[in-house]
Design brief:
GO terms for molecular function: S-adenosylmethionine-dependent methyltransferase activity. InterPro entries: Methyltransf_11, SAM-dependent_MTases_sf. Strands 3-2-1-4-5-7-6 form a seven-stranded mixed sheet, with helices on both faces. The N terminus is likely disordered. It has twelve helices and seven strands.
Length: about 270
């Protein structure tokens, strides 16, 4: 799901959904159960990406609006009569969204992109989200938590440093913010939410195989902004270094190359009164 702080569009729906990360919409059993969608729900999906999960949810609710900052992703979203898609950064939600009208706010695999911003902007994001919900409505989300994909993250930073990028510049090129349980609780409660569920899970995930996939495909797609701090001619060398490093720490003896995803989920409710 696209970052709200990155001006360029690095996303390609086919690469995302079939080559690099087809597992994203498939590993949603827990967060969907927490969403507990009802036929009369009016849902706002923040960071909807290619709309695959949005479309599935549309079959179970009255209306759903999907928002994503990537024109490429939005252009490929499946349509249905009760679904609207908006191309806009989720961090600065469009003013035309109706306040106090949504029964559910939902986000999957997107908040760690959206919230890569100054702390004050994170606080404002949750306050705006709160204003969009009806009293009694819930914000349900799953995203990368503190330490998410740390194996790949560190390998990419190291590859940049090895090519002359200052460590601070390499770190700051990261497009993600992986907040802790404590940070999310503070942000939610500051906005007025009552936190009902706040949990993390280590979910080791096998990367795809084949041309365009694997570690290399993952880095080229998800860490594209980090690679851009290097001259064009040095980027593939950095990708190969990350592949070699991860081969040593992520390859299981019984097959497959695995990355340590840490998922953070929450259910936060707007009080009735």
């Amino acid at each position: 799901m696209a970052s709200s702080t990155v001006a360029t569009d690095n996303w390609d729906p086919k690469t995302y959904s079939t080559t690099v990360a087809p597992f994203v919409p498939k590993l949603t059993t827990r967060v969907i159960s927490l969403l507990a969608i009802q036929p009369d729900d009016i849902v706002l999906d923040l960071g909807c990406g290619d709309g695959v999960l949005t479309h599935q949810l549309s079959k179970q609710c009255t209306h759903i609006t999907g928002i994503d900052s990537s024109p490429s992703m939005i252009s490929g979203c499946p349509s249905s009569a009760n679904t609207v898609y908006i191309c806009s950064p989720a961090l600065s939600l469009p003013a035309e969204l109706p306040h106090a009208q949504y029964t559910k706010l939902f986000s999957n695999a997107a908040l760690h992109w959206i919230l890569r911003c100054p702390a004050a902007s994170r606080s404002q994001f949750f306050k705006t989200a709160y204003s969009l919900l009806r009293p009694g409505g819930a914000f349900v989300a799953e995203c990368g938590g503190f330490g998410n994909v740390a194996d790949v993250h560190v390998a990419v930073i190291a590859a940049l440093v090895h090519r002359g990028i200052p460590p601070q510049t390499a770190r700051e090129s990261s497009p993600w913010w992986f907040g802790s349980v404590g940070e999310y609780r503070s942000l939610l409660e500051e906005a007025g939410f009552e936190v009902e569920v706040l949990e993390t899970e280590l979910r080791q995930t096998e990367l795809t195989v084949g041309e365009g996939g694997g570690v290399g495909g993952w880095v080229r797609l998800f860490a594209a902004e980090m690679l851009k701090v290097l001259p064009q001619g040095e980027r593939e060398g950095a990708v190969r270094e990350v592949e070699e490093v991860l081969e040593g720490v992520g390859r299981r003896g019984d097959g497959g190359l695995w990355v340590n995803y840490i998922r953070l989920r929450f259910v936060a409710r707007k009080p009735v009164a």
